[in-house]
Amino acid sequence: MTPETILADLLASGIEPSVTPDHTGIVVPAGKLTPAQRAAVLAHKPDLIAYLLESSRITVQLLESAMRGVFEQLFANL
What we know:
- The protein is mainly α.
- The protein contains 3 helices and 2 strands, in the order H-E-E-H-H.
- Strand 1 and strand 2 form a beta hairpin.
């Protein structure tokens, strides 16, 4: 399994994992993981943490870029 497939499976199950503030753990709602999902997360934990952090970083960059574009358009018309 890859971090991408694990995350896709979790999201399809309605589980949105996050990374702990110290970047050493993964947070999911208690009792929501199946035994197979738990095993996959534990087996690929470092790679999954890195993938989640990178996904978050990219999302922030995209949102900042989109908002910058909106503001530029807004103020260009003033």
